[in-house]
Amino acid sequence: MKDLIKKIHKLDDVKIQKEAKLMAPLTLAYMGDAIFEAYIRNYLITKGDSLVKALHKNAILYVKAKAQAEIVHELEKQLTEEEWGIVKKGRNQKPSSSPKNADMIDYKYATGFESLLGYLFYDGKIERLIEIMEKSVEIINEKNNN
After folding, report:
1. Distance between CA atoms of 141 and 146, rounded to whole angstroms?
2. Which letter, b or e, does each residue of 95-119 get, where b requires 16 or more Cβ atoms within 10 Å of its Cβ?
3. Helices 126-144 & 25-47, crossing angle to 10 degrees?
4. Residues labelled catalytic
5. Cα(69)–Cα(60) distance, integer angstroms
6. Are 17 and 124 in contact (CB under 8 A)?
7. More confident call, 6 vs 118
8. Helix (H), strand (E), coil (C) string for 82-99
């Protein structure tokens, strides 16, 4: 998965890395959402799940707003000041839509979490991005006893 993320993000693209700090938090969240979804789907497939219905049901446990809010709260003390600042910027954005299956506070923290993932991706911090996603899986697995 790490190699795929590196291929998608051309690490030699310094311009994007410089612009990462200036990107809108919701733009970062848009990419962070896609990266996390792909990471979770790959995790579940490599874990052995094969039926699409089961894959989808299990993926929701990780990618729903409530789970992402739990992840970001659990990780807060492990994040750098810069990383937590990105989470807060994402959290404080006015959502473009209202959440369907989550309360607004969880939705905002989930947006902050996704903003952080998008930021790490565009800033070229791929190792840190993978580390946070791995810890995220551990957090949700512990909560769900998987």
Report:
1. 5
2. eeeebeebeeebbbbbbbbbbbbbb
3. 60
4. 33
5. 13
6. yes
7. 118
8. HHHHHHHHHHCCCCCCCC
58: which 2 tokens? 């299990």
CATH number assigned to the domain comprising residue 60: 1.10.1520.10
CA distance 83 to 88: 9
Name the token pair of 94: 């006015």
Q: How far apart are CA 63 and CA 101, in angstroms?
A: 12
Domain count, the chain: 1
Instruction: Tell me the pLDDT tens digit for each residue of 74-132.
Output: 999 999 999 999 999 999 987 666 667 778 899 999 999 999 999 999 998 999 999 99
| 20 assigned to some structural domain | no
